[in-house]
């Protein structure tokens, strides 16, 4: 007879939810604070000098990541409307999917080689799958 696991699936899902939330909170904070760093300002100035735009989308996505992470984490400890949690996880999932397509298929396809590319994309696919799990678990 199969031995019953001491950790329930519900507690595993909560651990994944906490990990996803902490990941997006820290990612959002890192991207917001790095946006005003000297290196980022130099890169934006350099880009503008050659006709590029000031990349406001990166700050918007960083705020979305931070807000989604806070909503996902908060939903574990306080009652949050299911619709708000759905919107947070759906929005971050869509942006993460766009990031994957733009980063790994439209640019740098199989770069620098297939196995390195596969390893790097698998990390982002794990994040996307975790966001999807949190979305499906709570809706």
- Tally of structural domains: 1
Please state the oligomeric state of the protein chains shown.
single chain
Please describe the biggest sheet, giving its number of strands, its sense, and whether it closes into a barrel: none
The amount of helix comes to: over 70%
Stretches with pLDDT under 50, minimum 5 residues: none
| End-to-end C-alpha gap | 34 Å
Report the β-strand fraction as a percent range: under 5%
Radius of gyration: 18 Å
Mean pLDDT over all positions = 83
Overall spatial form: globular
Number of strands: 0
The arrangement of helices and strands along the chain is HHHHH
Structural class: mainly alpha
Number of helices: 5
Task: Give an overview in words.
- The chain has 139 residues and is mainly alpha-helical.
- The protein is built from five helices and no strands.
- The longest helix has 27 residues.
- The mean pLDDT is 83.
Notable features of this structure?
single chain, 139 residues, mainly alpha, 5 helices, globular
TL;DR of this structure?
The protein is mostly helical and 139 residues long. Helices cover 79% and strands 0% of the residues.
Strand-helix topology:
Layout: H1 9-35, H2 38-49, H3 56-77, H4 82-106, H5 114-137
Helix pairs in contact: 1-3, 1-5, 3-4, 4-5
């Amino acid at each position: 007879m199969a031995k019953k696991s001491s950790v329930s699936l519900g507690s595993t899902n909560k651990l994944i939810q906490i990990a996803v939330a902490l990941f997006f909170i820290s990612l959002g904070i890192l991207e917001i604070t790095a946006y005003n760093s000297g290196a980022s300002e130099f890169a934006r100035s350099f880009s503008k000098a050659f006709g590029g735009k000031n990349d406001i989308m990166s700050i918007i996505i960083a705020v979305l990541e931070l807000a989604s992470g806070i909503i996902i984490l908060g939903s574990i400890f306080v009652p949050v409307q299911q619709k708000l949690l759905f919107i947070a996880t759906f929005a971050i999932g869509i942006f993460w999917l766009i990031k994957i397509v733009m980063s790994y298929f439209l640019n740098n396809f199989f770069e620098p080689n297939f196995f390195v590319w596969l390893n790097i994309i698998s990390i982002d696919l794990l994040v996307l799958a975790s966001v999807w799990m949190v979305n499906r678990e709570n809706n």
